[in-house]
């Protein structure tokens, strides 16, 4: 997906925390799915849920398949760079107890889990940690921080840190394709209420800076285009993503009226992505429909494997595989979140959020 939050397994050496003398915020906490993983495991029967094999990583240094569903770097990698960090934060599950938070180099934790959703029932497959559990995991980190630094220092630290959240795609795709699918007029506001509950929990622990990315027009992923028979986007599914954005927009406005020191950026992944799909030439893309790596119709009928067909001009493609953006698309998404105008990221962009 082109909003590109392809937060795919980054294979961090344990203990290699991000650090940089000139990072713009003290720490980054990441929650959510690995947006670009939208339902990979649920909707591709053959999916192995892994990407630690070629052709993935073909444009990564030394062509390493790190586990990212990408030919190279993902949006998180680029955003972390823009924020002045050397790399994205390590997964929660790779940390051993409390030692990590006691290091001077502590710069945040990644709680996000590929395939997860706002609803506990979303992506009930192995290794998926739903938002409820991620927020719980954060609460344990909060308690450790309080025990280590005291409540007031902890809250000062957290208030300046960035909480980056990208979630909802798996819930929306799951509901859309479910036998008992709930109409969007009912389903999306309900998702909003669940989201609100988690944001309020984080606020209660001291979080004040939120970088939120709404759901991308998932109906334009090659995998979803297969459903239309014409290769066009599945507009109906995109409408869910649009409704989700306006729900989040209202929710965040309301919360920021109520909580005076709340700062946020809300990325409009629908606008960002549709802009690229409508004007591909402006961004030097020549193919915004099919997967670069795969097989069959739109190269999207099977996943990217070592024997799949690989496009030659990878930087000309929006989609790497049936669900995930290319490195070029991921970079563009990060660039837009960081420096984009109000039609793409509102009320301020991620660069302004760092300073806010
Ligand atoms: C966060 O961790 C999850 C689980 O290990 C991983 O799938 C995801 O790619 C990571 N995201 C980032 C930005 O590091
Ligand atoms: C965490 O614990 C595991 C298993 O005990 C160990 O192999 C690993 O080196 C530890 N990592 C750190 C960063 O201490
Ligand atoms: C959904 O409907 C299909 C076709 O009617 C059926 O094969 C499948 O078992 C149903 N799945 C669930 C979870 O009810
Ligand atoms: C925002 O607040 C308005 C006015 O109180 C309310 O009608 C609306 O439902 C709220 N929307 C969300 C998403 O919280
Ligand atoms: C597109 O390619 C041209 C020529 O290589 C380059 O000058 C331009 O900066 C590129 N535009 C984008 C948005 O990458
Ligand atoms: C790709 O599709 C062709 C034609 O259907 C098939 O012969 C081939 O085995 C497929 N390759 C892979 C890697 O799935």
TrEMBL record:
KW DNA-binding (keyword) present: no
Segment forming the signal sequence: 1-23
Domain of life: Eukaryota
Residue spans crossing the bilayer: none
CDD domains, sorted: SGNH_plant_lipase_like
Example GO molecular function: hydrolase activity, acting on ester bonds
BP GO terms, sorted: lipid catabolic process
Alphabetical UniProt keywords: Hydrolase, Lipid degradation, Lipid metabolism, Signal
Cross-referenced Pfam families: Lipase_GDSL
Gene3D superfamilies assigned to the protein according to its UniProt record, in alphabetical order: SGNH hydrolase (3.40.50.1110)
Family: Belongs to the 'GDSL' lipolytic enzyme family.
Record protein name field: Lipase, GDSL
Organism for this UniProt entry: Corchorus capsularis
Upper lineage: Eukaryota, Viridiplantae, Streptophyta, Embryophyta, Tracheophyta
